[in-house]
Here is the input.
Amino acid sequence: MILIIVLAVIVLAGLYAVSIYNGLVQLRENVKNGWSQIDVQLKRRHDLIPNLIEVAKGYMAHEKDTLERVIKARQMAVDAKNLPDKLQAENMLTGTLRSLFAVAENYPNLKADQQMLRLQEELTTTENKIAFARQYYNDEVNRLNVAVQTFPDSVVAGMCGFQKAEFFQVDNPEDRQAPQVKF
Amino acid sequence: MPYSFTQIEKEKSAIIVYVAGFLVLLYLVISGLIAILLNIFFRRSLFLSPEEWLLIATISIALAIAHYYFSTGDLTGKILRALRARPVNISNEREMLFRNIVDEVSVATGGVFMDTCILPVPSMNAFSIDDTDSTPVIGITEGALLKLSRAQLEAVVAHEAAHIVSGDCWQTTLISSIFEVYKTFFAAIKNAIFDRDQHEKDYNLLGRASGNVVNLIMRMAFNTPVLIVYAVLIILIVIVIFILALLANLLKMFISREREYRADAIATRLTRDPSSLAEALGIISRYWRGQGFSWDGMEGIFIINPRFTGLDESEGFFADLFSTHPPVQRRIDVLLNIAHASPEDFEQKITESLNKIKQEDQKEDAYAKVPTLSSLKKEPSHSCPTCQGPLKEILYENIKLLKCEICSGHFVGEDQISVIFNRRIEQFSEHVKLRAKLIQFPGENFIVENQIAIGPLECPCCWPPKKMVRRLFNRYYPVEVDKCPSCRGIWFEREELELIQYLFESKNPVLS
Here is the structure.
């Protein structure tokens, strides 16, 4: 009798552990999915910037420095391989883009350019998408991290090698807002 | 996200089982009742044999399956056609913006793909639909697209996306369409029994067929004395089905209300912007939400009920049971609470936005009067009696009158008519002249005037609504018009005003 009860408890505990394991796998996949979404959007931003520079060049010949800084920051972001580098490069790119738009305020012709207007909407939506993707990623990282550290999930996580994931943080508080591409 | 796809799929299968079970039960009850009644009449016995019950069960299951497939096949397409929605045109700036916003929200949900469409109407509203086979669709009216800001649009789209990711959109879509069949059926039965006017028979094939069958049975029943039994039977059956359909309606209402709060909450988590959603709700609810369009039975899929009802705005047992949407003010309060915003500031902001929208409307010389939350209950509709389009105040022969933007009908006050007929500014089109000729010299090709209108129309300027009377303008100018017995205004269908004016001016009254 006692044997049966012990066996039953073990089987139930095993099943419970399996369900926890499945939940953790789901969370880890969500984090991966979140990261790939950020990646897609960042790539989109990298692709848009050359067009933006091309259009801006025609109007802002005197602002070579600003434009070059954007190009450099973009190149760094494209080249970045690991997460910390990537975070730093992307944050820098956001900063240079912001200064570009600040300078663009002084060029009314640029503001009225049809192609620029379209690029502006494209960039706004991409920036928003990056922000949303980051938000989703961080939410999922948060859920995974909480799960990995709380009992009883922490036991299963420890045994099966689930680890905390890193947040996609924004260094500078001013960078928390997506750059405003408003003219 | 609290909802994973696996969970949604599980819920979907549960709902399919639940709806299918409900349908089988419904048909079992109906066919069982019919069988018992027939049994009583023909065999004078109450009990059926097991074989007969088996047959009844088989028939019910077959009917339920047929019903299910009939209502769920190409569900999204059916609803989009019923709403007359059109796809987004990405070469248009504003529509591209909408597409972008939907993509953004899609990213925020973790990559749920959503389609977009536009309802080409000037009122403000938004909706979402979803079925098992196709991509979920988020739609918005042209009015909302033009008049809401980017942040507000984002909030509205996030609300609709919330319905989709939480799976309740699918539920609403299925349930609001599964009993559509009955509506057509009942409209047709009602028609066949009470009103045999050919104009009214504007239903789909199924409706027409069922209407004709009932018509035939009714005729048989009344012409042949022996078959009077059938008449009683049919009435009984109609009552049974009616009660069951009523229950079905209750079921539909029961499901809907709470999901709006939940969708608002999920939308807030998606955009982190509760104030914009509150603003959007405030603006849409106080603007024209779509009252007058034939979106009957589909209210559940919209962000705010297109039809203003007192029931929606109240709380309590009955409101919770029957209404599809919770009180707008409650929703706004909850959102303002999340945003830590003061209601006074919010009120001021909404008033400013609405004033701005109204100014723009006037600038565009848009619609004469837009029904608002406060005005809807006690003021006339000011919508076109024929097509329910918005009426716009225009100058005709320098006289102010109301014209329908969509079907070009005119509503003219009694005292304005004689003034219009005595002025000679407007030119008449060749078509009007031709129609006038056909009336003046009928001959063989006499065309009956006014074939568009259906049934008695409602006066757009009277409250409570008055039915207008269809009659000839007068003996000399035999054009059918609708006269309001209360305010004595006259509704002219397209070209009729010009036609009578032309007849009057050509000094050639028709003497018949």
Observations:
- Residues 77-174+254-335 of chain B form a domain with the Zincin-like fold (CATH 3.30.2010.10).
- Chain B has three domains: 5-73+178-252, 77-174+254-335, 391-505.
- The interface with chain A takes residues 1, 4, 93, 96-97, 100-101, 103-105, 107-111, 154, 270, 272 of chain B (CB under 8 Å).
- Strands of chain B lie at 86-87, 115-119, 126-129, 137-141, 391-396, 399-404, 410-412, 469-472, 480-483, 490-492.
